[in-house]
Amino acid sequence: MKKWNRIWLALLLGVVIFSCKKTLLDPTGNTSLDLTPYTIDYNTLADPNLPGDNPLTKEKVELGRMLFYENLLSGDGTMSCSSCHNQNNAFSDTAQFSTGIDGLQGARQAMAIFNMAWNDNEFFWDGRAHFLRDQALKPIQDPLEMHETLPNAIAKLEAKGRYRVQFSKAFGNDSITSDRMALALEAFMFTLVSNQSKYDRYLTGNATLSASEERGRALFFDEYNPFFPELSGADCAHCHSGSNFENDQYMNNGLDDEAQISDLGRQTVTNSATDKGKFKVPSLRNIALTFPYMHDGRFRTLEEVVEHYNSGIHASNTLEPQLAYTMPTGLMLNAQDKMDLVNFLKTLTDYQFIKNPAFGSPF
Questions:
Q1: Which one is catalytic: 122, 145, 213, 320?
Q2: Model confidence pLDDT, tens digit, residues 245-264
Q3: What is the CATH number of the domain that holds 267?
């Protein structure tokens, strides 16, 4: 009889321990895989070509959001992805160069993170990350940024019950790996869709541009014409085209003369001299929020940017031919033209995007 009592006591203790473990992971006991899809309204944007091996689910996106705002992923626990990609600035950094946990600065301005699903030409200014999931883990390991190892980051996440729960919901079990971290971060960043600007409302007939904004819109899309100055435009759409205002290319936009190009840009990835000084063409959506501008953050205002294209192009061997074509006369924009162009660019600001709680910190 005593033997059976011991057996029942052991079984009871086993049930209690198992229940406590489930409670530690998730008070509801709900740790099973949840494949509920995450849906996005693309509005004026075309449906993107999302990777088939990483479908967007609510739980995977939520895990990615947690990781995006998680300071534990940095070496000293003080920095997250959001430290250099602030929602109020369309997930960009207003500092010319971001500062990492060791007080060291990067060499390039932090790119804004939105509409990543429409980037089909790799990631970072030089395109060194083939997929968004590849990009996601590099800042964690970069000595200039979060300066942590992936094994250390994983160990810290494993010590938190909430992450074992969320990995289970997103992937079916609580195994935490760098591949899963990358997929979750990629999923969250794919949901950072900006398509509710005044210009989007204008396209759908729900907003009217002011006279200055409309004139700026015409200048933006009209081609440069040195033979008929009165009809000449700023030809911005040559590089910033389509619904996302970028062209999936790497270009040299004339920031420096040949001898002054110190950052080789795309050439560091391709090892081709034809890519010297070329950088990824960024989207102009939310451009009024993502200052400073250019890969090195040299321009603080949109007015400076417009003046660069109007009169400041520098010649080099890899300069974009269309920009070289404008050099003899410049864009011939007068003060009113430049003001109108800037006013149009400001219509690309999506205030709903920067206030959307779904994109903010979950903590």
A1: 145
A2: 999 999 999 999 999 999 99
A3: 1.10.760.10
